[in-house]
Request: fold
Amino acid sequence: MKDHLFKDQKKVNDFILTHKHNPFPAPPASSDYLDNPAKFIIGRDNELELITSVLKESLDLPESKLMFLQGKQGIGKSTIVSSIPKHLKDINIHNKVMIVYFNTSNDEKDYHFLNFYKQTIKVLDDTNFLEKLVFATLNKILILGIKSGGKLEQDLQNLSISQEYLNKIETDSHLLRSLLNNKIPILKSEIIKYIKSNYRILREYLNINFNFLLTIIECFIGDDAFNASNALHGFGVYEGFEINTDNDAISTFNDLKKLTKWIYGEVTFLIFFDHLERGLNHPTEVYQALFSLLHSIRTQKHTCIFISGTLDAFTTFYSILDEDRRLQIDNWLSFYETLRPLDPESVANIVKHLLGDFYKNSNFRPDYSYPLYPFGSESITYLYDNTNEDIRKTLIELHEKIKIFRKNQVVTPVITFFDSLLNFRQDRSLHLTPREITLFAQKLVDENIQDKNRSTQAEFALINLIKQVKNVNSAITDVKHEKPIGKKNLKPDVYIELFGRLTLSKVKKIGIEVKIYRVGKEVEKKYVEKTHSLIEKDLDYITWVTTVPLSRVKHELHQSLKEKVGRTAPLSTDQQAYLSLALYFEQIFKRQPDPREAEFVLNRIGLNIDDIIIDVTGKKPDKIKHEEIDTEKPEDGISKWIKDSPPIPPTPPPDIKIDPLIPPGKEEEQPPVDLNKIKSEQNKNKISEIIIELSRLGKTYANKATISKQLIKENGIKNITKDDEETIDLLITEIGKEKGLVVKPTRIYFKK
Reply:
């Protein structure tokens, strides 16, 4: 970040370090309809519109609707659920949709209609819907008495309310509540008596169970509200009214809907079943009971059921239902939506929205160029990908990072891709993820770097890695950049000398030509011809590191010299990414790579130094053991990375020794193999995998010794005998021929 863009950066940082509410949600960072509803939603407009269209259809047509919403955990299903009420209010149909929300239970008993009714009434009571419904009902009954005349109008004269108030009730919907609660308390019992004495007439207008009507009214204006409320909730009896069976519950639920319709007109009940995965502990019992409940609800007109859950939950749900039940579900479904991960731009907008709320209380804001400060679009994208596109985990990580800033009282911005590697990378090895491979490969061909400079930088990066390997490989005696050799003083981009401490006749000279182009279709003829001249007289071996094919002049090299040439094919995307990692290693990790890391990165680029030495000499190189050069206890890559850099992310426990070249969990997957079972099927499969992996490095062949060495290394075999080496060699020959490859005494040639 450029300092001049942040004149008030310190003040912005000071504001971040206050104890004001952390801008990002803490674990578990999930939305909940009742306890933690979503304040906003971004990137789900299509899903909300689809849900809205189904609800509008449910208002117009009596047939019940069923909607499924599925997706992996942390993708925002509950956020959609909890944002629907606000969305309905925005489009002005919230008064026509009665919402009942449930967290899916793991107890099959909760899916009897009686229990469903009890939960529904509780939700409607907790949200004050029932109270509003009762006072609206009383209001309408009194207005009906005024307008209908006859006995209904005559009996109104017995109420302790003046004609003036009665006339006002029709235009002031809140007046009756005020009269009942404050001015004329006796009016409560008088109204209940009025309804009882006129119930036969009222039934012509309101065709419901009057015991239900009197009970629900008693809950809010009667003298025995406690017992009435218990009976309404299904836990007791009030003047003959009780609900203790599924049929009672269904009947009362119908009466509730009829009363709602009489007051508000046609409405639809939206019933949410969230977190379907909570039934996975007892799936057979729970999901069969849920299926029965769904069909009971389906008999109710103007109902809309919405079920959300994970992919596993829906897969299990469908697998438990037999074929005819699945067909019924399929015929009933209004839509079945599978949520996909949000695009990175939407995730960045969510972060921007949260930070906007945070900064609105501050006199100082980040520069307009950094609206996500102390983060950036690259770091947000990287983190979202690193959490397997889990928006919940992404926000939790940001929450934890703010906590670290506050704990250490220093803000270390995480803006760029490299900042992200330092702060958010979970993998402690040097194995790059697919996302990292893409980004590193893009960095290699950055348009802001000229091709000449790009190639030169790559040459020095390779020299740096080879020098590290030189510390543990006694065969390498010198590494130089563009060293003039021979009578013509031609210069290979990278020059490696082998066995320089021995007699002159045993010295081997190797060249690496490096051409990293962003533009251009091929390596120019002059560079290829230079290598031909070098290989004819001055070098024992030469190989290419390039992003484009070589000029066709490469075919003009004499057949007898072709064995002295290694790879000529362009680097794959993976290999380009690891070359880019070599370029930026010190910038990211704030240190030099150690010999093991250097060897690992070179191998990934396709420059296996041991292979090159075998190609030149036909022998395995002698190596200095790593322990001989380590003066301190070895540290894994990530702990060095953390120690030497400004941010202070969590450090792995000190008693854990991590091999930076092996992905986590790999050790457990590769138990040592018994030498007596050297011909085991497991070893054959391993050899086959090694051959396939080597074939992808772009070379035309692989040394048998390399395959053997890799097998021995992966199986942890020690004290290998000559007989074992011969057995492995025979296995490599056998498997190579099975794959249709050309097998020579020391090499396997790949088909190109």
Observations:
- The chain has 32 helices and 14 strands.
- The mean pLDDT is 83.
- The first strand starts at residue 65 and ends at 70.
